Amino acid sequence: EVHLVESGGGLVQPGGSLRLSCAASETTFDDYEIGWFRQAPGKEREGVSCLAVNEGDTYYGDSVKGRFTISIDSTKNTVYLEMNSLKPEDTAVYYCAAGPYYPPDVVNSAWRSDAMYEYWGQGTQVTVSS
User: Is the distance from CB of 66 to CB of 41 less than 8 angstroms?
Assistant: First the structure.
């Protein structure tokens, strides 16, 4: 069982930055695929980013590419999502998720799918507003 805990959400003005954290207990992130998703009111959950821990490959949704960065601190067993140049449309509850290892070609095509992940955090609210 993997327990994920997100933190770092909050209220920020447009153009501002936040860093979300996803910490795992009772395991390390080795051999996992780690994803960040978000869900805004009335919208479907959207894949934001993914880190294939073994290969170090990163993936981003088109709406966040160039503004968000996913990274890992293995010594702290924590994955981060650095969010810059935030926009009101980034407002959502952000979730981290962990799934088993898949080959790179699978991750490349499936990282946006909920089905690739087994474990989910409780979510953290991000609100971008002036």
Answer: no
Structure tokens belonging to residue 96: 């981290």
Q: Residue 36 in contact with residue 49, Cβ under 8 Å?
A: yes
Q: Are 31 and 127 within 8 A, CB to CB?
A: no
For residue 36 the two structure tokens come to 């960040």
pLDDT tier at 117, thresholds 50, 70, 90: very high
The CA distance from 116 to 103, in Å, is 12
Report yes or no: 84 and 67 within 8 Å, Cβ to Cβ: yes
Residues 64-104: tens digit of each pLDDT: 999 999 999 988 899 999 999 999 999 999 999 999 999 99
Q: What angle do CA 99, 104, 109 make, to 5 degrees?
A: 80
Instruction: State both tokens at 70.
Output: 């996913």
pLDDT band at 25 (very low <50, low <70, confident <90, very high): confident
